[in-house]
Specification:
The complex is a heterodimer of chains A (about 575) and B (about 90). Chain A folds into two domains: about 55-225, Alpha-Beta Complex (Penicillin-binding protein 2a (Domain 2)), CATH 3.90.1310.10; about 230-275 and about 290-550, DD-peptidase/beta-lactamase superfamily (Beta-lactamase, 3-Layer(aba) Sandwich), CATH 3.40.710.10. Helices cover about 40% and strands about 20% of the residues of chain A. Chain A has helices spanning about 1-40, 45-50, 85-95, 100-105, 110-120, 135-145, 165-170, 180-185, 185-190, 230-245, 285-290, 300-310, 345-350, 355-360, 365-375, 400-405, 415-425, 450-465, 530-535, 535-550, 565-570, and strands spanning about 55-60, 65, 70-85, 125-135, 150-160, 195-200, 205-210, 225, 250-260, 265-270, 320, 325-330, 330-335, 340-345, 430, 445-450, 480-490, 495-510, 515-525. In chain A, strands 2, 3, 4, 5 and 8 form a five-stranded mixed sheet that branches. Chain A has a five-stranded antiparallel sheet with strand order 10-9-19-18-17, with helices on both faces. A three-stranded antiparallel sheet of chain A has the order 1-6-7. The mean pLDDT of chain A is about 85. With about 90 residues, chain B is mostly helical. Chain B has one domain (about 1-75). Chain B has helices spanning about 1-55, 60-70. Chain B is rod-shaped. The relative contact order of chain B is 0.04. Classes of the chains: A alpha+beta (about 575), B mainly alpha (about 90). The interface of A and B includes residues 75 and 559 of A.
Chain lengths: ~575, ~90
Amino acid sequence: MTRKKKQANTWNNRSWIVLGLMLCVLTVFLGKAAWLQLDPTDQLRKEAADRHVRHITTASRRGMILDRRGEPLAVSTPLDSVVMDTPVLAAYLAKNEQKVPTLASALGLDPTALKKVVVSNIKDRHVLLRKQLEPSNAKVVFDLKIHGIYRERQYRRFYPEAWAAASVIGMTDIKDSGVEGLEAQYNDHLTGHDGQRRVYTDRDNKVLEYTYAGTNRYARNGDDLTITLDRRIQSLAYDALAHQVAQHDAKGGAAVVVDVRTGEVLAIVNEPTSNPNTRSGPVPRNRVFTDAYEPGSVMKPFAVLGALQAGLISANTVFDTSPGVVRVGKYTVKDHHDYGELTAAGVIAKSSNVGVNEIALKMTAEQQIAIVRNFGFFQDSGLGFPGEKQGSFEAHRWGDVQRSALSRGYGISATLIQLARAYATIANDGVRIPLTLVQRTAPVAGKRVVDSDVASTMTAMLELVVTDGTGKGAATSMYRVAGKTGTVHKNVAGKYKEGVYQSAFAGFAPASNPRLAMVVLIDEPSAGDYYGGLVAGPVFSRVMSASLRILNVAPDKLVDKSSGLLAKLEAQQ
Amino acid sequence: MRAVIGGLVIFVVASALVLVTVRHHNRDQYSTYHALQVESDRLQDEWRQLLLENQTQSQPRRIEKKAIEQLGMTEPSPEEIVVVDLR
């Protein structure tokens, strides 16, 4: 009993002290734990963040530019640059001498040169060792798993058609932002935005989870842009144009192909141009849009169309163009020859200046100007191409002199895209369809400019140009072609330079049921020939027949069946 | 009263454990998601490279050259063409 009491007493005194001490210690520990947990100075959070929080950027890719059939014309693909952490790399290479030759050759260096670079930058922890390596070489470099070597990824734009489409597609700058052509025009559409994530990682840099703090957004790739160009036609048009420019020792040339029913532009080519893949040389100009030139004879059909539409003449109305010279005000209008009596169709076929002059002056000034405007001259193409010109006229008043000049395509300027639209309008039965370079989601309504029978009369006249007139060079073997030649003295700074010409052909095919319209311009041919039919015509012929074949358009000009293959086949049966 | 408190204690402990599991699960899933994202990026880039390669190989002038030189193909002359009307 006493023993028990003694024990109790002992408990009461000493044990309480011990218990108290233990509780004190426990409080200290708990306090410390709470302190660590609550972290009022944020020191620990910062330390943890330094070790475990990373910002990950996901690069967005610029949208592709695709042709009408979905074939890429501009694609961004990654290229890796090699960056070295020199001290780490030096230490690693010292231990793994055998990897040096492989690394050096993949980087395009010889081993001694590589070692030299390492030694001379020995203290620097971030040195660009090789910029934008070929993908195959980059794979070799990074597969070596060398310490102290990192990749820095950049996106670069590639243009598979290179020269052929450069003037339309344009190009991007080194930051992958569009600076020319469609790349500039549709930059916002094509540009995406990079993604950013703040994440926790473990010791091995493996991503564990994302944090809610800070910027968090997903990468969004730029949208693709589908345009109306047909790569095949673009490519062959460029080849044909470049060939002809070289052949005739010309300063340059341009051409445009349009689908007359839909207003879709199938090809726009320019020469000279540059290769956007190498980013070298001058930025190519797209003269189809940016050059308004004096069109000359290719304007003649519009004066005749005006007179036909107003009912002032018919295709068979006869005009006496003798003696091939006529005075208009203080100017003389001349023909190459005295053509004598010509029908309206003959005036177009022979491109008679005297005849067109007479036809134009039958109209009122208002009628004459209205028809030219209705066919879309002096108005931009509506395509919004950067740097596009509208074309203009010099006249302050429309007297006979100005009207005569207008009917022959002088004293005004027009772009090739306007000419293409105007000829496509004739081809489309007189209905003007707005042009487009970007695929439409819904069909658009056209606007009737001249009556259907007027348009078909003009088509017949333009066909005569190719069969019997100045445009024989534009004829094709399988399709009937309608079109008009134009050869103008080049107007340099307000003066017509002797012996300097611009040769053009504008037309469409197949004449029986037109599908494509095309305009070709060769600037300053200087190898002898300069007539539009001889210089620009062959480009038209080659491109038009190949394009129609590519588009599976049935030929409308096959030889007489009795002598053709069909006859032979039938004879064999 | 006691039963309620006891029940709540058990619930708190249980939910704490579940929280730990869910968090672990979340990390696991996110890590997988991230890896897949990286893979998807890589494949996209590879696809674009292949597209370019394909485009280069199928250049019309290259095909034309091969057709003429290797296969001896020629453009048929108008006499050799018969239009078949399928209507």
